[in-house]
Amino acid sequence: MKINILTADVYNQIAAGEVVDRPYSVVKELVENAVDAGATEISVESEGGGKALIRVRDNGSGIGRDDLKAAYLPHATSKLRRAEDLFGVTTLGFRGEALASIASVSDMNIVSSAAAGEVFSLACQYGKMGEIAPAAGAKGTEVTVKNLFENVPARLKFLKSDAQEEADIANMMARFILSRPHIAFTYLANGKIKYRSFGDGLAAALSAVYGAAILDDLYEIDADKHGIRLRGYIGNRNFSKPNRSYQSLFVNGRYVVNQTVSAAVTNAYASYLMKRQYPFYVLFLDVPPEIVDVNVHPTKADVRFADNQVIYGSVYSVLSGVLDGNSRALEYLAGHGAPAEESAPSASAPASAPAFAQSPMSYEEAKKELSFDIPPVTGKGTIVSNRPREPLTAYVHSPEPPKEDHFEENKRFLAEQEKKQQRVEVAGLVYKGELFRTYLFYESGDDAYIIDQHAAHERLIYDKLTARMQEKNVAQQPLLVPFVLRLNASEFLFLEKNFEILREIGFEIDEFGQNSVKVYAVPAILMDIDLSAFFAEVLSSMESLRAVRLADLVKDKLAMSACKAAVKGGETLTEQEAKALIEQMDGDMGLKCPHGRPVAVHLKKSEMEKLFKRIV
Ligand code: ADP
Ligand code: MG
Fold first, then answer.
1. What atom in ligand 1 is closest to the CA of residue 77?
2. CA distances, 312 to each of 110, 128, 226, 251, 378 (Å)
3. What does the pLDDT look like over 440-454, one tens digit per residue?
4. What is the H or E stretch that residue 206 is in?
5. Is 359 helix (H, G, I), strand (E, B) or coil?
6. From start to end of 467-507, where are the E strands?
7. How many CA atoms lie within 13 A of 337 on its CB side?
8. How far apart are CA 148 and CA 72, in angstroms?
9. pTM (2 decimals)?
């Protein structure tokens, strides 16, 4: 076997597979370069989900004529010189791989000016470099990437739809806006403005991304613990999001997803949030560069800390301090201990602002203090309802569902058979009274039936509701005040895909610009549904592998409203009501409540006789 040294062409394509596997990662690399170049204004455009076009323009330092070629070469970087430099990187890039990788899989052009009046361009098509030519333009750099991955059909095939790729770019742009609140960003997708920030601070950046109202639900924190500074915004105790897409962590200015920090945040919120509720946060963790390794992942999406326990302890103690309102909470809130970057220092705030460098406790001391173990993630909470019950009214049979296939048909046939066996002639049943104000007794010949009044009623209401939904003749209940739901790009896309289904079951829902949707009407049978909770649930399934079955979710809601509307155990029914209940059941003793518990129990006379040893 002969060992071949790969040509630059092949090597770059392989590297491209790691660094730039999707349009959004191209955008990420280009914007990072613009940030590293000291730009104060960055504009980004995408077309066709970034597959057709990506253009990033900045007003940064620019690339001089002599460096243009080098910029395209692999391992060519102006940000690192020696291996030691790696342990103190302060720039976002340092591997010198991005431009070479992108150029090997696209039709790329750089126009750049490092000094007034000196503007040059250099193109590179799928790894073939062109000639440097004079060009026109302002100070800074404009990188254009067209027809991405056209020469790598296999990769192209694995990309998601244009809309989905675009949503991922938008989400990433939102994170850049948050992570660099002093840079003015503009992001346009297919010619439409998606995000715009003006470089006027973090609060304004949050408003640009999430809408100004979000600030009402957040605490601004700024704490210096053990030489580690934690600042940013966190949701208050009652504020949660249905998925993790509202969590942004920037470690030394770099967006990362990190287990240790996630666990610390999750545990700090554990007693306030229920299952499938996730905290909102935009957190900046600034640590001495020597205790964090950023070079553990080709796209630098995670970092490694020298000591996870110190990081965990710092984040957990600050967040739980604020959320639990303990005696140190004030120290951690911006504007109290250390003045926040954005808010003007208030007159009453103490002047002492412990700077990052002169922290009160050394890293080594902190390690000793924080010797506790990382506790497991927990969550708790209950839902209480005291809705009045619905009267026992006539029961409508659900229509026969449309025939699907033989397997389904067989199953239905067997179910029918089973039902028949459990059907009892209603006329022959005599109501005999109740026990514990919950169980109703009926007798017929040698048979007795005990019915759980709540389970039975719940089932009847549920059937009635599903029948109406299946017939698609649900009445709509217009909302006095339309409900507006502000989403991020991927949530919007996900919901939009389900618009038709939602409309079919009676929601009047439409796009409301800027990744928002507006609900004008709800199905009348779900009239007092909690819309934010309902959509939170729809969106919580966004991240799970199994796509949401909206129909199932709606069934869940129906079961819940049925449960709320039904008579409870412990409520006394009149004899008439007890009789009405069994009549509406049409004597079907095989019914199960929507949660799967039996509605009726059959007791034979002979079983009673055995109980009393009349027979053996
Ligand atoms: P890295 O960012 O890891 O250094 P890249 O391949 O992304 O590697 O970029 C190579 C070099 O090109 C950078 O080190 C920088 O000198 C230069 N460069 C790239 N983009 C820009 C830009 N927008 N403005 C100024 N210089 C840039
Ligand atoms: Mg770079």
1. 14
2. 43, 48, 12, 13, 16
3. 999 989 999 999 998
4. helix 202-210
5. coil
6. 476-486
7. 23
8. 16
9. 0.65
The finding on whether 323 has its CB within 6 A of some atom of ligand 1 is: no
pLDDT at 67: 92
Residue bearing the CA closest to ligand 1, atom 12:
71
Is the four-CA dihedral 460, 466, 469, 471 of positive or negative sign?
negative
User: pLDDT tens digit string along 309-365?
Assistant: 889 989 999 999 898 887 777 788 886 544 444 443 333 333 333 333 333 444 555
| Choice from 20, 30, 32, 33 to test ligand 1 binding pocket (greatest atom count within 8 A of CB) | 33
Specify the residue with its C-alpha closest to ligand 1, atom 7.
98
Q: Give the C-alpha separation, 299 to 487, whole Å.
A: 26
3-state secondary structure 258-283: CHHHHHHHHHHHCCCCCCCCECCEEE
Q: Which residues contact 321 (CB under 8 A, 6 or more apart)?
A: 328, 329, 331, 332
214 CA → ligand 1 middle, Å: 35
CA-only gyration radius of the chain, Å: 32
- pLDDT, tens digit, 9 for 90 and up, residues 545-597: 445 566 667 777 777 777 777 788 778 888 888 888 888 888 888 788 877 78
User: Considering only CA atoms, which of 430, 465, 436 is closest in space to residue 453?
Assistant: 436
Ligand 1 within 6 A of CB of 76: yes
Q: Is 133 within 8 Å of 37 (Cβ atoms)?
A: no
In terms of Cβ atoms closer than 10 Å to its own Cβ (0-12, 13-18, 19+), residue 388 is: exposed
pLDDT of 344-355, one tens digit each? 333 333 333 333
SS (H, E, C) 525-580: HHCCCCHHHHHHHHHHCCCCCCCCCHHHHHHHHHHHHHHHHCCCCCCCCCHHHHHH
Task: State the CATH class of domain 8-196.
Answer: alpha beta
| CATH number 3.30.1370.100 given to 426-602 | yes
Task: For the chain, give every domain's residue range.
Answer: 8-196, 211-344+353-370, 426-602
Distance 153 CA to ligand 1 centre (A): 27
For ligand 1, say whether the CB of 466 is within 6 Å of any of its atoms: no
Q: How far, in Å, CA of 193 to CA of 212, rounded?
A: 18
168 ligand 1 Cβ < 6 A? no
Which of 99, 108, 113 to probe ligand 1 with, by most ligand atoms within 8 A of CB? Answer: 99
Rounded distance from Cα 72 to ligand 2 centre (Å): 11
Closest atom of ligand 1 relative to the 94 alpha carbon: 3
Is there an atom of ligand 1 within 6 Å of 354 CB? Answer: no
Rounded Cα gap, residues 320 and 24, in angstroms = 34
Q: How far is CA 40 from CA 57, 153, 599, in A?
A: 11, 37, 68
Considering only residues 135 and 421, tell me which one the structure prediction assigns the higher pLDDT: 135
Q: Are 219 and 236 in contact (CB under 8 A)?
A: yes
Query: Per CATH, the architecture of 211-344+353-370 is what?
Result: 2-Layer Sandwich (3.30)
Is the C-beta atom of 12 inside 6 A of ligand 1? Answer: no
Is 215 touching ligand 1 by the criterion CB < 6 Å?
no
